[in-house]
Structures are given as structure tokens and as C-alpha cells.
């Protein structure tokens, strides 16, 4: 699935709550987990950090310590700090569809810094939910799309991605993902709009972007084992803002259309 680096601990709480019912159902049905690939529930937990932009479009970056988790429920779905919560609908063949929940960063007053704080509004994080579809070309590559909406807001999002699992080097498992994301007018204006009042305070042009393309992205992810049950999860994510996002005076004057995130976590696989 399309990833956007690790998430805040809030998603861990929400995701575990959402995944509790299906996970319990698996165990209650007598499908007891066994060792190896036959396990019905597989879990990877860890702790790490990420170096990411202060806000969507910012040129300044900050370090955050975050949890890493990936819980796979065979035949039901997955909960992870990279892709949120995914629940599969029954399917056969190469097509897979389902519902998902994910998380979008906001921006606090401290994230905005002394120049923008108090002039550009802070934004609370947003949980979004929606549907997805994915086509598996083979065991190593897939093409998919997501359509989602804020659970408490007017933002709507459409994304597409292509994921390719690269050949293993030694025991290193790694993959490359290319993605695109678009937003509706409400979401674009929330993250990249500049009100007349803010524009006057900052001496820039007001900006009210419409719906359209928001970014292109490329992600490289790798898992480097350090023992039978432990390893390092690494991620490098580059995004380039497009359209109304890239043209925003907020980005042009105080940010950058080039966004870079690096993440690393030490994990234990149960």
C-alpha cells in the first residue's frame, strides 16, 4: 500500500481498537497461530524515529521518535505504522479490494516557527477512511489506488501507487514505490491556502487553490535483519508538490516543493 513514513502514536491506539474485533474473530474461530508462514496473526513491533518536514510544504525538518508496528491478520487485513489500517474484502484472483483508515499530519504552532506562528493557522491531525483497490501483477509488483475522506472534515483524497519488490541482496528485503496524490478543494485549501488576513500579515498574496494534483512521490523501504527475530526497518521518501500546492505563496516563500523524509526503526518480529 502507499506509504508515507511512520505515524504518530495516536494511530497505534486507533488502529488497535479498529483491529481488535477481526483479530479476536480469527482466534475465536479456532484458527490458532502457528510458527512460521502459517501464522494467522503475525506481529512486528519496534521503536524508531523519523526526520520529516515541520509541516506539509515546509523546508525546515525535525526529528520525532515514533513507534513502529506491523500486524498482519491473514485473510483479514493489516495494521501498520506505514499504511494505517487495511481490511480486505473476500476476493479471488489478482484483484484485491477493501476499506482502509489512515492518518494525515497537522501542524502545531511550534511546527510553524516564529515567522508563521500566529499568522498561519495551526491544524489538528486528521483521520481519514475510504476504499482501495489493488491489482497484483505477480508476487513482486502491484498497482493500486485509494479514495478517502476525512472522518471529521471536508477533505477528500485520491491516490495511486505502483509497488515493486526488489530482488533480495544478501538477506535484505527491499522495495520501491512510486505514487501520486490529489486533493479536493477543501483539503488543498486547508493545507496550502492563505487567507487575506494571513496574506496581509505576511505580506504575500492570498491563495485559494482548487482541487487537483497535490504531489508525486517515490519511496524506498528496506528491512535489514540483525538476528532471527530482530532487524532494522529503513525508509526514504521523496515527494514533489504539484499544482496548487506547489504554487502556494506559503510554499514558495516559506517552504519547498521538494519534501524529504528519512525513517529508521529497530524492530522485533514475533
Give your account of this protein's structure:
The chain is built from six helices and twelve strands. The longest helix has 20 residues, at 9-28. It has one domain: Beta Barrel (Porin), CATH 2.40.160. The chain has helices at residues 9-28, 109-116, 185-192, 196-202, 243-246, 249-254, and strands spanning 41-53, 61-73, 77-80, 84-88, 95-104, 126-136, 141-150, 156-169, 172-183, 212-225, 230-241, 258-269. Residues 1-35 have low confidence and may be disordered. Strands 1-2-3-4-5-6-7-8-9-10-11-12 form a twelve-stranded antiparallel β-barrel. It has 270 residues and is of the alpha+beta class. A hairpin with a 5-residue loop joins strand 7 and strand 8. The radius of gyration is 19 Å and the shape is globular.
Would you identify the CATH architecture? Beta Barrel
- According to DSSP, the number of beta strands is 12
Between the first and last Cα atoms, what is the distance in angstroms?
A: 22 Å
Q: Calculate Rg over CA atoms.
A: 19 Å
Strand order of the largest sheet: 1-2-3-4-5-6-7-8-9-10-11-12
- Provide the number of structural domains: 1
What characteristic shape results from the CA principal axes? globular
The helix-and-strand class reads alpha+beta
Arithmetic mean pLDDT? 88
Query: What is the CATH superfamily classification?
Result: monomeric porin ompg
The CATH class, by name, is Mainly Beta
Which fold name corresponds to the CATH topology? Porin
Q: What are the segments in which pLDDT stays under 50 over at least 5 consecutive residues?
A: 1-35
Amino acid at each position: 500500500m502507499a506509504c508515507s513514513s511512520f505515524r504518530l502514536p495516536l494511530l497505534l491506539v486507533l488502529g488497535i481498537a479498529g483491529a481488535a474485533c477481526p483479530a479476536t474473530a480469527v482466534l475465536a474461530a479456532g484458527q490458532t497461530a502457528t510458527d512460521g508462514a502459517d501464522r494467522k496473526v503475525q506481529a512486528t513491533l519496534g521503536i524508531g524515529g523519523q526526520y520529516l518536514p515541520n509541516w506539509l510544504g515546509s523546508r525546515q525538518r525535525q526529528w520525532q521518535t515514533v513507534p513502529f508496528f506491523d500486524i498482519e491478520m491473514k485473510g483479514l487485513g493489516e495494521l501498520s505504522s506505514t499504511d494505517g489500517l487495511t481490511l480486505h474484502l473476500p476476493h479471488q484472483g489478482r484483484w484485491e479490494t477493501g476499506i482502509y483508515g489512515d492518518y494525515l499530519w497537522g501542524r502545531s504552532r511550534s511546527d510553524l516557527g516564529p515567522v508563521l506562528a500566529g499568522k498561519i493557522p495551526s491544524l489538528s491531525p486528521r483521520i481519514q477512511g475510504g476504499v482501495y483497490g489493488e491489482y497484483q501483477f505477480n508476487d513482486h509488483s502491484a498497482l493500486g489506488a485509494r479514495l478517502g475522506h476525512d472522518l471529521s472534515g471536508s477533505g477528500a483524497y485520491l491516490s495511486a501507487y505502483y509497488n515493486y519488490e526488489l530482488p533480495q541482496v544478501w538477506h535484505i528485503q527491499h522495495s520501491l514505490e512510486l505514487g501520486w496524490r490529489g486533493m479536493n478543494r477543501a483539503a488543498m485549501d486547508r493545507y496550502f491556502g492563505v487567507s487575506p488576513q494571513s496574506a496581509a500579515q505576511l505580506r504575500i498574496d492570498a491563495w485559494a487553490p482548487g482541487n487537483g494534483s497535490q504531489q508525486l512521490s517515490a519511496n524506498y523501504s528496506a528491512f535489514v535483519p540483525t538476528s532471527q527475530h530482530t532487524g532494522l526497518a529503513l525508509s526514504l521518501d521523496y515527494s514533489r508538490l504539484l499544482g496548487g500546492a506547489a504554487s502556494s505563496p506559503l510554499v514558495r516563500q516559506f517552504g519547498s516543493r521538494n519534501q524529504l523524509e528519512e525513517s529508521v526503526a529497530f524492530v522485533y518480529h514475533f
